[in-house]
Amino acid sequence: MQKEMAYSFPDEVLKHVFSFIQSDKDRNAVSLVCKSWYEIERWCRRKVFIGNCYAVSPRMVIRRFPEVRSIELKGKPHFADFNLVPDGWGGYVLQWIAEMAGAYPWLGEIRLKRMVVTDESLELIAKSFKNFKVLVLFSCEGFSTDGLAAIAASCKNLRELDLRESEVDDLSGHWLAQFPETCTSLVSLNISCLGSDEVSFSALERLVDRCPNLRSLQLNRAVTLDKIANILRRAPQLVDFGTGNYAAELQPDVFSNLAGAFSSCKELKSLSGFWDVVPAYLPALYSICPRLTSLNLSYATIQSPDLIKLVSHCPRLQRLLVLDYVEDSGLEELASSCKDLQELRVFPSDPFGVEPNVSLTEQGLVAVSLGCPKLQSVLYFCRRMSNAALVTIAQNCPNLTRFRLCIIEPKTPDYLTLDPLDAGFGAIVEHCKDLRRLSLSGLLTDHVFEYIGTYGKKLEMLSVAFAGDSDLGLHHVLSGCESLRKLEIRDCPFGDKALLANAAKLETMRSLWMSSCAMSFGACKLLGQKMPKLNVEVIDETEPPDSRPESYPVDKLYIYRSVAGPRFDMPPFLWSMDEAVKILH
Amino acid sequence: MENSVAYEKATELRLGLPGIDEPAVLSSVKNNKRPLHDEKSGENGKSAQNETAPPSKAQIVGWPPVQSYRKNNFQQAKKSESECGGIYVKVSMDGAPYLRKIDLKVYKGYPELLQVLENMFKFTIGEYSEREGYKGSDYEPTYEDKDGDWMLVGDVPWEMFITSCKRLRIMKGSEARGLSCSGV
């Protein structure tokens, strides 16, 4: 009787039902129910997310999901952001584009993160997909404004072009003029990463003029303050706006023009940009501050008193990114004014200075934890911390989902007791039961990892640096953290034991990065041999790892699960430990 | 402690290398490549490191973890590369998804540069002659100069080349031949 039920629904009905299921997790679950559901589901999956572009090949994706309209790919490991991954490592998108060009003529959305995108790739996108709507290049590199010109010229219905934090070769500012006059479909345009001469302002103005649905616009640093009013008057419907540089000599007419332009934007909720800020122009924002939910001042070199004044006008603020110029006093003001705050990121203004240049300590963060009960996400750079402060923060904010603390000097102990910060971070993982992401710093022993393994059951991403005493630390994490997907470690005394003992765990994770640790070449080879479903890759820019004894530690190690087998595009400094790959360099 | 017993049992797995008692574990974390200054912490970690830190010290690569994008943007426009005195240019090759960056200051002349390019992209460049450009290969190394023109690598004296070269492109096929015939 039960079996008949499953066959009694025609495929069309199931397809219709499945169309309401958007999340990847749920879709994956659906496809496991039975063979016919697998078949139906794969034909109607429209969105694919690939967290590691080397985990699967384009061909395999196309074979399983023939009708994809939207794809998201991630390339380099996260530590590439901090120059730990050598240039030329990989993450090339060209082959993906080439294969999808043939298989997915209706592909409409491409989102890439930390990938190498050449002009050739962009030209191929422009040529191949007639219905192309969304291009997001997050932290990508390898392309120039020539490639952008091709996209602008060919993509008739482009809705979104977002180049955030990408590195673009500046060649000519005229690429923006390539958008045809008939293009009126833009909803989101982020060109904040472009250098000085890369944007023709008149072309930008005309583009903004003819796109009535433009909701999100981030200008680049070269756009001067006096131009903002022009843009805003053409786009009063903006919800999200990024200024260029926010500096000019104070002139009353410029100021009132600017203030008037801002006040005409009734939907504006989010602001960013603010390079080179002249504080006298900040009051031009006051009319929209009461509506602001997100404010990114992380490039604004303004001092605490000006920040306090601004923030006190923003009672609805949910997200604040700021430099440590905000100081403890600024954060105390934030705590009293912004009760809706969910996310706080405080960046260092002088990360390489030895002495503190601002009065920002653990007190600021404690104040925010006390005053902002909805706090969920924290990124905090500071120079001192105590276990007591961390315990307080943990108790005040049990809803934290992301906690990233960077105490600037490695191995800094509790400044009050000189103890390691094990107990403090232990309190964080114990109290914050929904914690998904954690970054550690300061003086830490194996004990902190014991806490993490015991309590961090929902932890998905862990970043570790200059911590731990022995393999036991790594073992606690690998054996205890059930939800772990990404683990990145640098400069820790973790060697072969824990990794080999927990080899099977690695197949349940997306990736593991270890650099300047104590993994031996011999153990890496062993892991590569025994675990065919893992790609075990050793990176060494000075010499081949097999030119040294097997017990010698490897410099950098990147391990990730993959159904695609070893890479075809390995650079000379990268060695695969896969048995099938002959090491010929 | 209970955990360490469990750990010891867990690590007694068959994954150990045969014929060796224990997988090799190095106690030293350092290798002589990293610019990491010496740090010792006591058994229970109670050393007050801050007090003994020297006033100026070598920068640790990638620490503190501030994104390079953020670092570049925070300062006034200038990229740190040029401050070090290197002449960095991007190198692309038609058909290859690779994009590499090289420092032209490192090389003494064209032969060295061409050798490096051949190694980097695994191809061979033909014989160069002023009249006919590169013969004997499908590929030709070209570069874009400060005026935005595409030139054949080797046409101008080396010193002039490194100061005017903005980026390199190894062209393939007919496009390349067109350049050498008409440009020179």
Automatic annotation (TrEMBL), chain A:
InterPro entries hit by this protein: COI1_F-box, F-box-like_dom_sf, F-box_dom, Leu-rich_rpt_Cys-con_subtyp, LRR_dom_sf, LRR_FXL15/At3g58940/PEG3-like, Transp_inhibit
Location(s) in or outside the cell: Nucleus
Gene3D superfamilies attached to this UniProt entry: 1.20.1280.50, Ribonuclease Inhibitor
Keyword Metal-binding assigned: no
Predominant cellular place of this UniProt entry's protein: nucleus
Keywords per UniProt: Auxin signaling pathway, Developmental protein, Nucleus, Ubl conjugation pathway
Pfam annotation, one family: F-box_5
Pathway(s) the chain acts in: Protein modification; protein ubiquitination
The F-box domain, residue ranges: 9-50
Gene Ontology MF annotations: auxin binding
GO CC annotation terms, alphabetical: nucleus; SCF ubiquitin ligase complex
Gene Ontology biological process terms in this record: auxin-activated signaling pathway; pollen maturation; SCF-dependent proteasomal ubiquitin-dependent protein catabolic process
Superkingdom of this protein's organism: Eukaryota
Transmembrane intervals: none
KW Nucleus (keyword) present: yes
Entry protein name: F-box domain-containing protein
From TrEMBL, chain B:
Entry keyword annotation includes Disulfide bond: no
Cellular component aspect of the GO annotation: nucleus
Positions of transmembrane segments: none
Gene3D superfamilies according to UniProt: Phosphatidylinositol 3-kinase Catalytic Subunit, Chain A, domain 1
First-listed, main subcellular location of the protein, grouped into a coarse class: nucleus
Biased composition (Polar residues): 44-53
Signal peptide start-end: none
Keywords: Auxin signaling pathway, Nucleus, Repressor, Transcription, Transcription regulation
InterPro entries: AUX/IAA_dom, AUX_IAA, PB1-like
Pfam families named among the record's database cross-references: AUX_IAA
Entry function: Aux/IAA proteins are short-lived transcriptional factors that function as repressors of early auxin response genes at low auxin concentrations.
Family, as annotated: Belongs to the Aux/IAA family.
Protein name: Auxin-responsive protein
